[in-house]
Amino acid sequence: MIEVGRPVALVLFLVLIPVVRTWSASRHTLPIWRSRLSLGTRLLLFSLVILALADLRLTRPAEQLAVVFLLDRSESMSAPAREWQEGWIREALLQAGPKDQAGMVVFGRDAVVERPVRPARRQQDERLTSVVDPQGTDLASALRLAQASFPADCSRRIIVLSDGLPTAGDALTEARLVAAHGTEVWTAIPPTRAGQEVLVRSLEVPDKPTLGQPFDVRITVQSDQEATGLLSLTADEREVARREVELRPGPNVFLVPQRRDHPGPVRYEVRIQSPEDLHAGNNRASALALVGGRSRVLFVTAENAHPGPLPDLLRAAGMEVRVTGSGALPRSAAEFAGYSGIIFSDVPALEVSESRMETLRQVVTEAGVGFAMLGGTSSFGAGGWYRTPLESILPVDMDLRRNRRKALLALALVLDKSGSMGEKEGSVTRLAMAREAALAASSLLGEQDHMGAVAFDSAARWVVPMQRHQDPAKAAAELACLKAGGGTDLFPALKLALEALEPLDVPLKHAIILSDGRTEPGDFDSLARRAHQARISLSTVAIGEDADFQFLSDLAKGTGGRSYLVNQASLLPRIFTRETILASRAAFGEKPFRARFGASHPELRNLTVEGTPELRGYNLTTLR
Q1: In 3-state terms, what secondary structure has residue 205?
Q2: Contact assessment for residue 218 and residue 253, using Cβ atoms and an 8 Å cutoff
Q3: Which one, out of 211, 266, 394, 488, has a CA that is 20 to 30 A from the CA of 536?
């Protein structure tokens, strides 16, 4: 198969037309055969240069096929559906070729590797052992984990066995990214059984019911046959209605009258219980309503940060404003009651847990609560918000590959793979989170950037050689092979990284060092001086109480890098993406400018920016 990496370069062939015409019209002193030979040689050389610029490649299809099965084990998958999954995989393994390989990822609210990719025929009698949280379906995380599991030099295929009802992440976008890297994505949906099934089809509430006025909550229950059931409705976890209902085949609609005497968001949840039901995984639904009242705003700052003048300006406009630090954010949607808007003022993502981000996203998308993120040194991409639940609700994109101002970057990842990195946090090891963090960082790099990864325990070796980042899938496969074990000796690993970065002709060079222990002694001062002289910045990440944070912090200070101390490995992807964006100098525009309206909006009709003071910088983003 012939592939063209940069098709636009083929336009240069048009230049050959006037060259040939000029030659034909000119008079030649050489014999005609020699003139034609000279022209042909020049045209051949010129054509080869054009093809080289176009990145022409001849590829052969891989002989081996590697398949990763994604098994949805969330509560929406009934026992018959799970039996169907296992039977489907057994049949697929029986039909596998002698060279085919297979692996398996099990997912619910989280995702784990049940079986690494290895010869398919050896797995026919193996049973499932992994357990995941069934209270959710994060297909996007499962797709990322599967993509990272593939070995190099093989055809790649992911087969998703699910009911197709994800509750977290952007599965469609992740599937497109996986496909863009040459991996096929197939789906298989479990068959449905007729009869003996009761489920909640929908729960509908008015978007903004009026304070003190009655309104109806509309519940639709689907049944495949005549049945009885117990219907219960809660508001902010307090039961407000409970009744026995008779169900007919098809949709059954129930209206529950309600009235709210307090402003703000309220979460309604409905549940149907029926003795004739197949399974309970689809027997509940929830929805948020925003009860109108006086506008109240939750103004959130970074921990120990001053809120600035904006809260007072909002109060002067007639709003009730509560200022809080990021550590005191409400934990549930019900606790946001009374707020019509939420403002994040330069809050770093590391200070907000994943669960609180998801709660905020749900409040904004389902209840219509307003959300604003203000710029600053710890906001947007510089704050680690890339690929977080809150990024998905913003009108801007933080992917620095779309930012034309980004300078070329060479990034070295120095990853601890000692035995302690095999410790689990929940169902995922620290090393697995380090791999995911490395993949998140690499997703921000362009084809002209360089990336490499060095892993170390008692010794050091290149996992991903330092090279242009033109094959992300291969890099992901190489990172997937990392296994924990051994001691902790950082010195030879850092030395390898510096030796690879120093000769590269790129304007920006950066290394991220990750460790959860105390390293063997070495002459690190000389390495820090060497990095400083070569304009290589070093940032360090210490995980857990056993890590030598002071040593790692001192190592980063001498080179202009940053240091982090975290107790949760789940924060690593945010740190790595933040570091990649900062190292690429794609986080800020630092030239003085005056504000202007970029788009018209009815709310801006009576506003003016004339006479406003000059600003010194802004966060770089792109419109979605």
Answers
A1: coil
A2: yes
A3: 488
